[in-house]
Structure prediction request, 82 residues.
Amino acid sequence: MTTITIRNVDDELKERLKVRASEHGRSMEAEAREILREVLDRANKPEPGDLYRAVRGIVEPLGGIDLDLPARKPIRDRKLFD
Prediction:
């Protein structure tokens, strides 16, 4: 394991970390580790709801996909009811 020292943390930020750690029942150090883990894990995942970009990011490097779409049928005439 590696040890990291973070200098020049302002008092307000330190207090917010302390409160958040208390809410989660963790030490400030454990809370800081969890925050780092969450943020870095989130950075490696596509944004939720952006399925198009997620699929395109997978398929595009492979050369894309050609889909054989069936021909559309003509629109049927509407039946009018008097």
User: Anything to note?
Assistant: The helical segments are 11-23, 28-43, 51-59.
